[in-house]
Amino acid sequence: MIKSMTGYGRGNKEIDGREYTVEIKTVNHRYNDITIKMPRYLNFLEDKLRKYISTTIARGKTDVFVTLNNLSDKGRNVKLDKKLVEKYLSEMKDLVSTYNITDDITVTSLIRLPDVIITEDESDEDLYWEELKATTDIALKCISEARKIEGANLKEDIEKRVEILEKNVIKVEEKSAGLLDIYKQKLENRVRELNANDFVDENRLGIEIVMFADKSSICEEVTRLKSHLDSLKQMLNSEEPVGKKLDFLVQEMNREVNTIGSKANSLDITNIVVNMKNEIENIREQIQNIE
Question: Which of 68, 82, 92, 136 has its CA 20 to 30 A from that of 101?
Answer without folding.
Answer: 82
